[in-house]
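Below is a filled-in request sheet from our internal design queue. Each sheet records the structural input a requester submitted and the sequence that came back. We keep these sheets so that new team members can see what a complete request looks like end to end.

REQUESTER: design group, bay 2
PRIORITY: normal
MODE: inverse folding
CHAIN LENGTH: 189
BACKBONE (tokenized):
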């Protein structure tokens, strides 16, 4: 439901004007900049922003409404997480091609059809990363080829069980939750 009234007119008080920026870190996966911004009331503030090329994730859904996920150790949390196949975009890479590549690399799956489920802002308070969400159907199985240093397990489970796992907080990865919930709604679960 869209709010009533002229949103653009109300946005004027929310817009921040960038008046300076400095890159303070450059890495392989992301960079960090400190932006100096002028607020609506004329005051100046700083914003620390992680600059990221974005990523893509894909729901591999078979004809029986099973999905294929991966289990992978995630260093920031020091634990193994359930996730959908996903990867970071290379500079100027097409998100759909990234999702298709990651599906093949991580699960060995190839899809007859890949459609967009939209996109999500992972952490909009401080990061520019946009994650593109896709649904793959018409699956055929081949051999996976994970990246060097990437160790994972492929898990096949019913989509309905994955939704229950979200409810039980057994799946806590945001991109995975959003893509699975969108898929469940799309297929009537």
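RETURNED SEQUENCE:
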């Amino acid at each position: 439901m869209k709010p009533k009234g002229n949103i653009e007119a109300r946005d004027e008080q929310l817009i921040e004007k960038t008046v300076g920026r400095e890159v303070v870190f450059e890495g392989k996966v992301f960079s960090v900049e400190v932006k100096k911004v002028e607020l609506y009331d004329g005051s100046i503030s700083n914003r620390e922003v992680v600059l990221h090329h974005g990523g893509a994730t894909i729901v591999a859904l078979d004809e029986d409404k099973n999905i294929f996920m991966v289990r992978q150790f995630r260093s920031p949390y020091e634990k193994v997480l359930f996730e959908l196949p996903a990867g970071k975009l290379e500079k100027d890479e097409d998100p759909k091609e990234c999702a298709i590549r990651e599906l093949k690399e991580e699960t060995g799956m190839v899809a007859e059809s890949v459609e967009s489920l939209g996109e999500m802002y992972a952490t909009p308070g401080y990061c520019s990363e946009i994650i593109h969400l896709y649904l793959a159907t018409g699956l055929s199985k081949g051999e996976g080829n994970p990246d060097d240093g990437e160790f994972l397990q492929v898990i096949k489970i019913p989509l309905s069980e994955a939704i229950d796992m979200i409810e039980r907080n057994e799946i806590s990865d945001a991109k995975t939750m959003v893509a699975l919930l969108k898929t469940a709604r799309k297929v009537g679960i």
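SHEET NOTES:
- The chain has a mean pLDDT of 92.
- The chain has two domains: 7-52, 55-186.
FILED BY: M.R.
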